[in-house]
Amino acid sequence: MNIALATLTLLVILYPGFLFRRFYFTEEFSKEYFKQSVTDLIFSSILPGFLIHFIGYLLFIKGRNQIDVFTIGTLLSGTSDADKVTRAFSAVYQNSPFIITYFAGVSLVGMITGFLSKLVVRNLKLDRKIKLFRFQNEWHYIFSGEILDFPKVSGKAEDIDCSYVDALVKTDEGTVIYSGLLTDYILTKEGGIDRIYLTSVKRRFLKDDIIHGPESRIEQKQENTEDKRYYYLPGQFFIIPYNLVINLHITYYKFTITNDLKEMIKDVKID
What we know:
Layout: H1 3-24, H2 31-34, H3 38-61, H4 69-77, H5 82-94, H6 96-123, H7 126-129, H8 138-144, E1 162-171, E2 174-187, E3 193-205, H9 206-223, E4 231-232, E5 238-241, E6 245-253, H10 259-265
Antiparallel strand pairs: 1-2, 1-6, 2-3, 3-4, 3-5
């Protein structure tokens, strides 16, 4: 049995399904596609692949050409019969213009349907409402605040303008808390966090919380004085390797413009 021929034929048939999944898992969810094994990728592409071929049949084959079941069966069977293989390849060669056109068409269908399917899921928030549609990048839901739209979580993601992170990090100088606005994050190949990017960062040593105590912080707040525990870090971005992070604390904020501020900026012109 010619297993290599059968495998190659199967991969060609499933190729539109691969494209569907590739264009479905894009941007912040792209790691979900690449971390799959070849076996998982094949099995997960079977259903979308055959659905796309059904669409391709309606668009390109029905009423125009007939499917050569013998040729397809011969290539998928992996037969070692030289005569059958020769006839199958001869049939493929004779119909190569149509085959190339067909696979170009179903490939385009796969890309478009994959992209549109993601748009539907995301715009209708199906991945937040129904666990079946949920992507595996849980950090996106946490960092963006979309986790607030989950059925068992209170709150609304639309009420969030930014995410503020307090990262407890172990260093040679002691345990440090870095606080700042979340700008971006990078995932590992396995889907975990590799590093996070913060801006407008300040830091304090955890031991200072014990030294100053809560009373000191209350007095500073009442007197509207600067908390001396903090040191503000210069620079545009601060990058924290996640393997140094002990835990994260995330706070969601929404910006509000008061009437006084509206009055102050109403005449401001931006070129």
